[in-house]
Amino acid sequence: MLEGSLRKTMLAASGPDLDAALTEMGWADMLTDVPDLAVPLVFRLLGETGSHASALVDVVLHATGNAIGDTVELPLPYAGNAWVVWDRISVHGIDPTLGGLPLRREEEGYPIRVAEARLAVGWWLVGSARAMLALARRHALDRVQFGKPIASFQAVRHRLAETLVAIEGAEATLTLPGSANPDLTALLAKAAAGKAALTAARNCQQVLGGIGFTAEHDLQHHVKRVLVLDGLLGSSRELTKRAGAGLRARGSAPRLADL
User: Fold this and answer.
1) Most C-beta atoms within 10 A of its C-beta, which of 80, 88, 123, 176?
2) Could you say which DSSP state residue 232 is in?
């Protein structure tokens, strides 16, 4: 019931309008009382619908003990040792290259707690990846060549299967039970989600062929979005290298899940 209402709201609104709608639906209470349910649901749906809201800022605020909904500007780390700010008030000065998100580049930032935010962005990436897979699957079923749907061709089926496996693996990483090292778990989950989304973008673009390159097709919206989300809070490549360097320095691998 809640998921259906959220999906309908996100399909109808985005940006400040969606912020207001989420506030009315009790987003702050959900984040405070049931974050383990609210964050995966809201951010996965943001990815699936292609909408956006400043809920990520609320996740960071809540994790750092600040008031949810505060308009304070928090610099967020971005790929390449860069920083960005999510502008939740004004649309002026927004960089149009950043996936259509209200992000503004900053010259410098300061360390903040990002583990919870990385999990949120991970779910956003997974949702976007599932949206791209759905578009590619629908096209593969509808597009006919040599008298049969291209979904029957082995090469196309392999692309779709590889994408699904990557998405399911990333989602499993995001849902790992609590560990003694939540920062590392979140880092690895964000890296896995970023890799899955990039895999989805690459494979779904191949399945859709020329139509997937057109600005009019929904795929391009998701591709641009995941390229930005992968870089936000550390790209999948950077995070993987960081985790590897940490493990080498430690000399052992910590337990990430209590099975």
Assistant:
1) 123
2) B
What is residue 88's predicted lDDT score, i.e. its pLDDT? 81
**Burial label, 129 (beta-carbon count in 10 A; 0-12, 13-18, 19+):** buried
pLDDT at position 158 is 97
Contact 123, 47 (CB under 8 A): yes
Q: What is the pLDDT of residue 256?
A: 61
Beta bridge partners, 104, equal 85
Which regions of the chain are under pLDDT 50?
Answer: none
Integer Rg of the chain from CA:
19
How far is the CA of 145 from the CAs of 30, 88, 140, 148, in angstroms?
Answer: 48, 47, 10, 6
Domains, the chain: 114-250 (1.20.140.10)
- Sign, CA dihedral 109-35-120-215, equals negative
Tokens of 101: 């998100």
**Cα distances (angstroms) measured from residue 39 to each of 80, 118, 127:** 26, 11, 12
SS3 string of 146-169? Answer: CCEEHHHCHHHHHHHHHHHHHHHH
